[in-house]
């Protein structure tokens, strides 16, 4: 059986593809307070509740201090993979509703 000829591909984006503006965002993974490791076991006992509010995010290496709104709180547990410290991790999530974004409800995708 003859060998297939290699598929010729042009490098780069397809013709006509738009250049997307990407906002630079930084996400810092939760750190173990005992050894500062970000490695952990799988999460367990995860639960999310719908609870809105605002949280003060302290100044970090990539951000000034800021007050951030949130709509959901996710709590989960894990264990530090390096020192074995038991961790209770809380995530504050912002899942905006269409009206929060100033969008027409009929045109927007349904809220989770
Ligand atoms: Zn640790």
Order of secondary-structure elements: EEE
> Roughly how many Å apart are the termini?
53 Å
Arrangement of strands in the largest sheet: 1-2-3
Bound molecules: zinc ion
How much beta, percentage-wise? 25-35%
Q: Give the overall form.
A: extended
Structural class: mainly beta
- Report helical residue fraction: under 10%
Q: So how many helices?
A: 0
Largest sheet: 3 strands, antiparallel
Kindly report the average pLDDT value. 86
Uncertain regions spanning at least 5 consecutive residues: none
Number of β-strand runs: 3
How many whole angstroms does the radius of gyration measure?
Answer: 22 Å
Would you spell out the secondary-structure blueprint of this structure?
Elements: E1 44-57, E2 66-79, E3 86-93
Antiparallel strand pairs: 1-2, 2-3
Description:
By secondary structure, the protein is an all-beta fold. The protein is built from no helices and three strands. The protein has strands at 44-57, 66-79, 86-93. It has a three-stranded antiparallel β-sheet, with no helix packed on it. The radius of gyration is 22 Å and the shape is extended. The termini are far apart. The model has no long low-confidence stretch (mean pLDDT 86).
